[in-house]
Amino acid sequence: MKQANTLMIQGTASTVGKSILVTGLCRLFAQEGWRVAPFKAQNMALNSWVTRSGGEIGRAQAVQAEAAGIEPSVEMNPILLKPESHSRSQVIVLGRPLDAMAAREYYRHRSDWLGVVEQALAKLRASYDLVIIEGAGSPVELNLKAYDLVNMRVAQLAEAAVMLVGDIDKGGIFASLLGTLMLLEPEDRQRVKGLIVNKFRGDLALWRDGEKLLAQLSGLPVVGTVPFFQDIRIAEEDSVALENGSAALLQPATEPAESRLDIAIVRLPYLSNYDEFDALATEPAVRLHFVASPSEMPEKPDLIILPGTKNTLEDLAWLWRRGLVQHIRNCARLGSAILGICGGYQMLGERVSDPQGVESQVARIEPGLNLLPIETLFAALETKVTQRSRAQIDDATAHGLFAHLRGASFQAYQIHIGRTDPSGENASQARRPFIIDTEQQDGWLSRDGWCAGCYLHGLFENDTFRQGIIRALMERKSSEPFVAEGSSFSRQREYDKLADWLRTYIDIAQLKELCGLTEA
């Protein structure tokens, strides 16, 4: 049986743009008629996605699959590490959570992980014309070379030609690219067929001599210099893009400032799946803020969102330490709407309890914001929920935030552990606003309708849900009828724009020739 062609994108460091380049190349080759699939052997990220079979993989590989026009599968990211603390991560193998491990324990199982990676890669290569592989970090982390599961070891398994990517925006492009090549073993060095310079700002004509110098010193062609872009919206691999405190999202400003909604998203330390709010940033009526302290909060936020997190208890304790619990409660008292999603939903209750150390490794109880009459319990042997869902608003709760969503249904997904129930005497007064897959109820809505929470991710990517929420907030703000003018949110257009961008700045014919890519 003929195996697929392979191409691998490695980088000189993390955040040089490997994921975005793989996404664009997946789209570009798919447009040319290739049956193309992405692959990343091991991914460490808090942004994740649920496959149709209920497996959990890195969000980046799901995005790359979507760009390629195929359904994501667990083989595209056979090992996912989701950090739970500075020293431990949940290990997800072929879509299913295995255990939480420290790095030393994880590395002891290297031979097991390598077998998983090899089998997943073989399955993809047997099913597609081309597999585009993404590396992680740098291939020359010399102290970790013996444990490599994702860079040159995978290139060897896949017999892949490698393109090495450097980030010129950080500075030191010559040192990073040439230094990486110098530190590679000779047999690995031979796998690198070309260089890509990413995130260029300025006049490309002034950089052409730099390209020639790089080619001369490395003995490798520079197949492209890709300019920095700000008008193409691709879901980020992880929340590292927010670490500088900015939203890192494009914000249209077509509405006068005084007439726009201020929506604040709390930038939790273990924030997960924040890309689900990308669609909000495209709305002309919205001004989006990512905040990590009371001082960063807008003076009068119309809506505060507590997003998902991989460590609810630790992030809840962080909210208390930062003074955000008191500030959010005060904002709610003064009229801000509050919405919690997944871990953020858990935080809105009276308490979060982990008596057996399921999430925290030690028994722990944290007081919540006490904005909803609920409590959450983490229990041993509890199965992690990972599923796609179809949800709708229960007509009986269609008021407040959900006033304009009566009868509407939405695509969503769930990734969580922990059970949330009404607390004590509130059990008989449950106000669950969402009906999932026509039968199961989820979430909670306050009596006045302006504080809500649920376990459903991806709601804002549904045009009807997003614009219904905006309409409810605008009418509360102005007391006048409002018609949302936002456009339909689609990542497909963004993938096409990205492919066009790469086609403009990368010599694709040369890339194919260097990598020996032949049509299936």
Features:
Class_I_gatase-like, 29% helix, 6-stranded mixed beta sheet, Rossmann fold, 28 strands, glutamine amidotransferase, 520 residues, alpha/beta, CobQ/CobB/MinD/ParA_Nub-bd_dom, catalytic activity, 2 domains, globular, 6-stranded parallel beta sheet, 15 helices, Cobyric acid synthase
CATH superfamily of the largest domain: P-loop containing nucleotide triphosphate hydrolases
Instruction: Based on Cα principal axes, name the global outline.
Output: globular
Please summarize the sheet with the most strands: 6 strands, parallel
Amount of beta strand: 25-35%
Radius of gyration: 24 Å
Brief digest:
With 520 residues, the protein is an alpha/beta fold. 29% of the residues lie in helices and 26% in strands.
Structure description:
- Belongs to the CobB/CobQ family. CobQ subfamily.
- One of its GO terms (biological process) is cobalamin biosynthetic process.
- InterPro entries: Class_I_gatase-like, CobQ/CobB/MinD/ParA_Nub-bd_dom, CobQ_GATase1, CobQ_N, CobQ_synth, GATase_3, P-loop_NTPase.
- Keywords: Cobalamin biosynthesis, Glutamine amidotransferase.
- This protein has 520 residues and is of the alpha/beta class.
- It contains 15 helices and 28 strands.
- Strands 2-9-1-10-11-12 form a six-stranded parallel beta sheet, sandwiched between helices. The chain has a six-stranded mixed beta sheet with strand order 15-13-16-18-28-27. A four-stranded mixed beta sheet has the order 3-6-7-8.
- Strand 7 (88-93) and strand 8 form a beta hairpin.
- Helix 1 (18-31) runs parallel beside helix 2 and helix 1 crosses helix 14 (491-505).
- The longest helix has 18 residues, at 110-127.
- Mean pLDDT is 90; it is low at 244-254.
